[in-house]
Amino acid sequence: MALHWAVFQLPAHLVDYVIAHELAHIKIAGHGPDYWTLLRRAIPDCEARKEELDDLGRRLWLGQTAAAGDG
Fold first, then answer.
1. E-state strands within the chain
2. What pLDDT shows up at residue 63?
3. Is 29 helix (H, G, I), strand (E, B) or coil?
4. What's the domain of life for this entry (predicted)?
5. If residue 43 lies in a helix (H) or strand (E), which one and from where to where?
6. How far out from the chain centre does Cα 45 lie?
7. Contact assessment for residue 61 and residue 10, using Cβ atoms and an 8 Å cutoff
8. Burial of 39 (0-12, 13-18, 19+ CB in 10 A)
9. Can you tell me the distance from the alpha carbon of 19 to that of 27, in angstroms, rounded to the nearest whole number?
10. Fewer CB within 10 Å, N side or C side of the chain?
11. In the chain, what is the straight-line distance between the N-terminal and C-terminal CA atoms, in Å?
């Protein structure tokens, strides 16, 4: 399993969610009902964490900077 380095900017409870999410994919491909049942066993509030990650993830720094001469 590989994780993008930007994941480690997240709060610990969201890092846990991302890791559990990826580990669940070892057993179940896709995001169907069986996948969410499995993930919920590890992270009971996974839906709330997914929503938080979706919101926060849009604001993570991914290493992009302004081009030389911009700003």
1. none
2. 80
3. coil
4. Bacteria
5. none
6. 14
7. no
8. buried
9. 13
10. C
11. 38
Of 6-10, 18-22, 58-62, 63-67, highest mean pLDDT: 18-22
Each as own residue / partner, the long-range contacts of residues 61-65 (CB below 8 Å, 24 or more positions apart, any chain) are 61/6, 61/9, 62/6, 63/6
Length of the chain: 71
Q: 19 and 3 in contact (C-beta within 8 Å)?
A: yes
Tokens of 43: 């992270």
Domain assignments of the chain as residue spans, ordered by start: 10-57
3-state secondary structure (DSSP) of residue 17: helix
**Confidence (pTM):** 0.82
Q: Are 16 and 46 contacting, i.e. CB atoms less than 8 angstroms apart?
A: no
- Return the number of other C-beta atoms located less than 10 Å from residue 53's C-beta: 21
Rounded to whole angstroms, the Cα distance separating 30 from 21 reads 11
Q: Distance between CA 22 and CA 65 in Å, rounded?
A: 28
